[in-house]
Amino acid sequence: MKTDVNVGCDVVQVSRIEKMMSTQSVLKKVFHPSELLRFEAEHLAGIFAVKEATFKALGLPSDSWLMIEVKYHPSGKPELVLASKIDKLKIQSMDCSISHDGGLAFAVVTVLKDK
Amino acid sequence: MSKGLGEIKPYKNIYDYLYSTCKKYANNTVFVEKQKYRTKIWTFNDLWVKVAEAVDYLDKKHLKKGDKIIICAPNSPYWACLFFACAIKGIIVVPLDMNSSSDFIKKTISMTKPKFVFISKFMPQAKDKLSHIIYIEDFKTDLEPGAKAKSMNGGNVKPDDTLLIVFSSGSTGDPKGVVLTHKNICANICSLMQHMVIYPTHRSVSIVPLSHTLELTCGLMAFISMGASIVYLPAVKPRAIAEALQKDGVNIIVTVPAFLQLFRNSVSRALDQKGLGKIFRTSLALSKPLPKSVKRVILSVVRSKIGKDLKEMYVGGARIDESLEEFWNGLGISVYQGYGLTEASPIVAADSPKPKMHRLFTVGKPIPGVTVKLADDGEVMVKGANVSSGYFRNPKATAETFKDGWLMTGDIGHFDDDGFLSIIGRKKDVIIGSSGMNVYPEDIERTLREHNNIKEAVVLGIENETDTIITAVVTLDGKTTSAKEIIASTNEHLESHQRLQEVIIWPDEDFPRTPTRKIIRFEVNKYARTDKLPSVTTKDVKSGNQLYMIIAQVTGKPVGKITSKSTFVNDLGLDSIKRLELMAKIEDELGLVLSDRFVNQKSTVSDLEKQIKIASGTAKKKGQPNWPDRKTAIYFRLLLQYVFFTLSKSFQAVEVKGFDLKKFGNEPVIFVANHQSHLDAPDIIKVLPRKTRTKTSVAAAKDYIFGNYATGLMARVAFNAFPIDRHGNMDESLTNIGKILDKGNSVLLFPEGTRTRTGDLQDFKNGIGVIAPEMGVPIIPIKISGNYDILPRKHHIPKYGKTTITIGEPIRFDEGSSYLDITKQLEEAIKKL
Asked: What string of H, E and C letters represents the secondary structure of B549-593?
C-alpha cells in the first residue's frame, strides 16, 4: 500500500484570540467545552492553529471546527481527535505540534494517508 | 411636599424583604431565564432555594459580615441570587458596570479591598490580572443543589448596616462611592410599592444593568415585591429585547431614555416602510386624534415591532426628550418618568398610573416617605429614609452634598401648582450622557490637556433633539492636528460613557478668561452651540444597509468602500477569525445563523446577501405548530397509536428490558436510540409509560419525512414529530428541541441519522454530542434489536419476528465534556445494552 504525506500549518496572533474570548457565540462554534476549560488566550490560540492546520492537511471545509478536538497528553503534547465522519478518510496516522513565541501561536499537522 | 409611608411597614433588612416576598408569592414565576436554546422558569420558591445555596457557597468561601465583594457581571438570576445571599449575610456588595475600564475596576479594588471580584470570564477586563477573581459562570455551577446554610436568617443584619457601595467616576478622577444601607434600599422599595401599580400579571424584561440602583431597587426588588416577573436575556441586545417583547409576554419595562429612542427608531422605520410615518407624525404634531381605522393599522405595525403586550414604561436615569414621551403616549403606551439619584437609593419622584399622579413632561410627584423641597436657587433637596449617609471614605464630598440631613442634588427643579416636579437643568456642569451615566467634564478635560498639541480644553454637553453630545472645545499649541485625531487619541483613555463625540477647535489662541484667569465657560458654550466650525462627528451613521455596516465593523473598511462586488478575501481581507466574527455579528444583529463555509476565495458580498435572503426566508417559517399539543390531537394520536399497536401484534412481539422508566420523575428527557426500521419509533412509543407517551416528540428527517406534506402531517398527528436537519442546520434543530423540552415534553432522537443498511450500529452523527449538553436534560439510551429482520430498508411488508427494546440508565454529561466524547459515550452506551 502506498502512502501519501499531507502537511498543513497555521499561525495566529494570540491577541486576536484574546479578543475572540469575549464573544461567546464565536467560541462555541470553534471550541469544544473541554477545550475551553483552560480559558487562556495562548492555550486557545494553539488549539485554533492546530484546527486550521488540520483543515489544510485534510482538505476539510472551513467550518469543521467541532469535527476536531485537541487534547493534551499528561506530558504536555497536543493530540488530535477526529469525529467519526472524518475518520474514514483512509488516514493511517497523524500528528500535530504547537509553538508559541512573540505573541504568535504556530501549529503543524502531518497526516499519512492511503494513496 | 411630604407624605407618610401609610400602612406599609418597612422591611427591617433585605432578608426580611426577600423572606416575605418569596413566602407571599411562593409558586408564582419570578424569573424567566432565557438561555440560548432553553427557557428556565424560576418560581419565588426556586429563588429562595437558590439564595440559600448561594449563602452556603459564601459560607464555604469564609465570607463574613462586613466583608466586601465586587460584582461586575451581566444581568441574570444568578446576579440577583449572589446579591441577595450577600445581603442576608451582611456582606457589602460593590456593583460595577460591565463597561468599566480595567483601570476603574483596579481603583475600586484598591479603595474597597474586596475579598472577591465576581466577574464574567467573557469580559475582556477579566484577563487583566485582577486579584481574587471568581468567574460568575463558575459560581453558578459550584452551587451545591439543596444546600441549606445555617446563616440563612436575618437576625445578624441591622437596618443601618451597609448593603451597597455604588461607584461612579467622580470629578476628581477617583471613583466616588455612595454608601447605601439596608434601611435606605428597603425604604425605597416600600415607597415604590405604594407609588407604582404592579400586579403578579406584570412581566418585564431586564435591560438596565443591575449595577445601577434604578434596575436593582426598582427594576428588580420593587417589581418582584409585588409578585411581578422578570425576563433575563442571555445578552441584552436590541434584537433579543425585541424578541422578548414579542414572545415572552412582556407588558412593562424599566429603562433609560436611550432605549426609548432605539425602540422609536425601529417603530418609525417600520411605519415609514408602510407609508404611515407621515400621517402619524402629523397627527402627533397637531395633537389630533387619528381616525380609528388608521390608528388600528398603525398599532398593528407598532405591535409587530414591540410586541402586543407592552403597555407601560418606567423611565429614569437621564432627561427624556419631550417628543419621545409624546411619541409613545401617542401610541397608547404610558411613559412614567422618574427622577432619582444613586444617593437616594435612587427614586425621589415618579409618575404613576394612579389617578392624578401622571403628568406629561414632569417627573411626577415625590414618592411616599420622601420629602422634596427647593432651595432658594431652585436646587432640589431630598430627605427621607432612602437617602444615603454619605460617600465611602470621602468626608469632603459628603459634607458638600449632605447638609443638615438634606441631600443637595445639584439639580434645578420646579413644582407646578399640583405638586408635579420638573427638572430644569443641572446646577453643576455635570453632563448626563444619554446612557444616564454621569460624565464629569473635568475628567475629560484633564485627559485632553495631556494631548501633545492641546493647550486648554472645555468639555460641554450639547443637547440636540434626542441626545447629549459630549463636545470638547480646544485651543491648540500651534501645531496642526485634526479634530478626528484628537477624538481618536483621547477616547482611548476614557470610559465608554465619557467618550468624546465632537471636537471643535477654538479659532483663537486662547479662550476668553476672567480677570482671575478663569475660562469663561459660558462664552465657550455659546460659541459651541451657535457657530458652525469644521468638526467631526464620531457617531455611527445610523442609516444605510445593515449588512454593509456589519461588514465595515468587522473588516475595518469604510462603508463607502464596500460594494456588492467586493470579494471577501482579496478586497476586504477577511481571514478565518474575521469570518467567524462576521457570522457572529450577523447572528446577533440579523438573527440569522449561516454556515461560514460559503465564504471562500472567490465569494463576494452579493453572494452573502443571497445566503441571507435564503436564510431569512426559512427563519420566518421556523416556528412549529401548536396544534399537536392540543387535547383533541393527543386523544386522536392515542387512538391512532392504539390501532397501530393492535395491528402490529399480528407480526411482531415486543419485549422491553432494562431501566424502569416508571421510576423516573416528570422531568423531560432525551431518548436516544439506534435506528433499524420504520417500526422503531412506534415500538419505542409503545413501551413508554402512558404519561410519557403522550408527551414525547419524535425527531424526523426534515428532508425525508417532512420533505413530503402528507408524511410530514401524518408524522405530526401520529407521533408528535418535529423536523430535524440531518445536513447541518444545527441551530434550527437545537431551537426546536429546546422549545419541546421547555413545554415539559421529551424528545426521541435517532443519532445515526438514518436507518441502518447492514443491521449493525452505524456511526452517530456529531450533532447529538452538541444537543445533549446544550439541553441540560438527562439522556436515556435505548437499544432496538429485531426490527431489521422484520422490516428493513426498502421493504414494505413486515415479516414475523420478535423485537427487543432495552432501556439504559439515564446519563448526565458534565459541562466541560467534548462533543466528540459525548457522541462516542452514547454510541458505546447503546452498544453495551
From this structure: HHHHHHHCCCHHHCCCCCECCCCCCCCHHHHHHHHHHHHHHHCCC
* CA dihedral for B771, B772, B775, B780, sign (positive or negative): positive
List, as own/partner pairs, every contact residues B337-341 make where C-beta atoms lie below 8 angstroms and the sequence separation is at least 24, other chains included: B337/B362, B337/B363, B337/B364, B338/B214, B338/B218, B338/B314, B338/B363, B338/B364, B339/B363, B339/B364, B339/B411, B339/B421, B339/B423, B340/B213, B340/B214, B340/B316, B341/B407, B341/B409
Instruction: Extract the C-alpha cell encoding B414.
Output: 420646579
Evaluate the CA torsion angle B31, B34, B38, B39 in order and state its sign: positive
Rounded Cα distance between B38 and B775, Å, is 7
Of A30, A69, A84, the CB nearest to B818: A69
**Pick among B819, B824, B825, B828 to test the A interface (most A CBs inside 10 A):** B819
Based on its alpha-carbon atoms, the radius of gyration of chain B, rounded to whole angstroms, reads 31
- A100 - beta bridge partners? A105
Q: Residue B548: helix, strand or coil by DSSP?
A: helix
Alpha-carbon distance of B561 to B169, in angstroms, equals: 39
Number of alpha carbons in the 13 Å side-chain half-sphere of residue B474 = 34
Q: How far apart are CA A51 and CA B473, in angstroms?
A: 51
∠ CA B814-B816-A68, nearest 5°, is 120
Residue with cell 454510541: B827
| φ and ψ at residue B410, rounded to 5 degrees | 80, 0
φ, ψ for residue B159 (rounded to 5)? Answer: -55, -35
Extract the C-alpha cell encoding B760.
Answer: 449493525
Is the model's pLDDT at B533 over the cut of 80? no
Q: In which order are the strands placed within the sheet that holds B347-350? A: B252-255, B312-315, B334-340, B347-350, B365-366
Question: Which sign does the torsion angle of CA A31, A34, A40, A42 carry?
Answer: negative
Place of cell 393527543: B634
Can you tell me the distance from the alpha carbon of B317 to that of B338, in angstroms, rounded to the nearest whole number? 8
Tell me the pLDDT tens digit for each residue of B37-62.
999 999 999 999 999 999 999 999 99
Please give the ipTM for the structure prediction. 0.92
At B184-219, the pLDDT tens digits run 999 999 999 999 999 999 999 999 999 999 999 999
DSSP output for B768-828: HHHHHHHHTS-EEEEEEESHHHHS-TT--SPPPEEEEEEEPPPB---TT--HHHHHHHHHH
Q: Rounded to a whole number, what is the distance in Å from the CA of B815 to chain A's nearest CA?
A: 7
Find where cell 425602540 sits: B263
- Report the C-alpha gap between B118 and B783 in whole angstroms: 45
Judging contacts by C-beta atoms under 8 Å, the chain B residues touching residue A19 are 124
8 Å CB contact between B183 and B62? no
Determine the angle formed by the axes of helices B546-555 and B605-620, rounding to 10 degrees. 130
> Distance (Å, rounded) from C-alpha B110 to C-alpha B118?
15
Q: Which amino acid is at B386?
A: N
CA A82 to chain B, closest CA, distance in angstroms equals 8
Whether the bond into B346 is cis, omega within 30 of 0? yes
Contact flag B580-A41 (C-beta cutoff 8 Å): no
Distance of alpha carbon B31 from alpha carbon B229, whole angstroms: 5
Residue pair B149/B59 in contact by the 8 Å Cβ criterion: yes
pTM given for the model: 0.84
Sheet containing A3-13: give its strands across. Answer: A3-13, A104-114, A91-101
B494: which residues sit within 8 A by CB, 6+ positions away? B443, B444, B447, B500
* CA pair distance B669, B67, nearest whole angstrom: 42
Average pLDDT over residues A45-73: 93
User: Grid cell 423516573 — which residue?
Assistant: B664
User: DSSP string of chain A?
Assistant: --EEEEEEEEEEEHHHHHHHTT-HHHHHHH--HHHHSS--HHHHHHHHHHHHHHHHHHT--TT-GGGEEEEE-TTS-EEEEE-HHHHTTTEEEEEEEEEEETTEEEEEEEEEEE-
Does A22 sit within 8 Å of B124, measured CB to CB?
yes
